[in-house]
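tl;dr need the bound structure. longer version: we got a ligand (EPZ) that a collaborator sent over and nobodys looked at where it sits. i said id run it. heres the input, straight from their email, havent touched it
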Amino acid sequence: MEQFIIKGGNPLVGEVDISGAKNAALGILAAAVMTDDTVLIENLPNVRDINVMLEAMSEIGVKVDRISPHAAMICGADICDVSVDYEYIKKIRASYYLLGALLGKYKKAEVPLPGGCNIGSRPIDLHLKGFRALGAEVTIRNGAICARAEHLRGSHIFLDTVSVGATINIMMAASMAEGRTIIENCAREPHVVDVANFLNSMGANIKGAGTDVIRIRGVEKLHNTEYSIIPDQIEAGTFMFAAAATRGDVMVRNVIPKHLEATSAKLIEIGCEVEEFDNAVRVVAPRRLCGTNVKTLPYPGYPTDMQPQIGVTLAIASGTSIVTESIFENRFKYLDELARMGAIAKVEGNTAIITGVDRLTGARISAPDLRAGAALVIAGLAAEGITIVDDIVYIQRGYELFEEKLRSLGAEIRLIHDEKEARRFRLQVG
Ligand code: EPZ
């Protein structure tokens, strides 16, 4: 089984390029099937979740031509099946975006119910509420969501909880419904805006994405487009905290600084210098970080996908910090792994109280999920000694060339397959 082996202690220094946003790409790939024309999508991140999504689309008859690791031509003209296979939804929940896309285009779709995952139960009741409001009959049968409609008609939909997935899924279906749809209490994440911009480039009529009210006038047909995915603000933030935790100096390039405002604000609070450029940010860390408090919120608040990264950094900051996770109910599992490295943290409900220690020590740890896995790598980079991270397949879902990008910044990290390679690494790093 593949692992990362890390010798900690090197400050990260240098420049790193950020890939396209995974969570924007997943919605955009689904939306691409809504036209019978061919669509070119560029700046795709070359990560496992994207590859699985493309496989799921091919499986139902979408023509996928991966012209490069970061670009694909998509044509949904010959879709022969509107039922997505369980294999794919099991691998990535976001296959459920095909529900909104296929329902919008064909007025029918069938997608297996996504299960919960490592960070919480993750219901999809709001998605289904939106589809029903648009006039679809939605039933759950044999573990699958079956949605169909004679016609989809615009509606006024209020989301009880701010939900990225529900906002994107309903927006896709409504973009080809008859008449006007208003979605209230929408998610405002950059990737919601990216999916709306993509749909509009195909001829949809969507206004207000990025605010909490999205207004859509349905259209009968969508057409071809060429589109480039926005940079991944979570990958960018992950490298920014890696710079902070290792006392480094890193220029993170190919970003949209506005998308990183909450992350940058927290880095400044803990003592880092953050300098913004047109499409880059530079993070310079102090000798000793200071603790702070943080609460995750929907965008533009501090992102839940950046909670583990600040958590591991606060574990080596001075003082006691409080981290409140208000989005998901089970996103502190990484703290158990961090305790094996010497961190002091206590979880009470959706709050973690973290008491900073001078240093962490390397240990054998396991990635509980995608973002926690990346955060534990940061902990290994900051720790004294050797850390081995298991279950790195989670990390590979959403971070392209993670260890190569870290190595280019001076990290001593290798992807290994067995004990022999671990021994070779230990010999090399001394
Ligand atoms: C998206 O998940 C992201 N995934 C997640 O990133 C991210 O953590 C999350 O948004 C929040 O920003 C993708 O974009 C593929 P939500 P999503 O619907 O859409 C509740 C990563 O690391 N809810 O915004 O599933 C839900 O339980 C992943 O890349 C309902 O109650 O998240 C949660 O408490 C992890 N009913 C809250 O809303 C619903 O129908 C926010 O969830 C839907 C959601």
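gonna send this back to them w/ a short note. The two ends are 24 Å apart (CA to CA).
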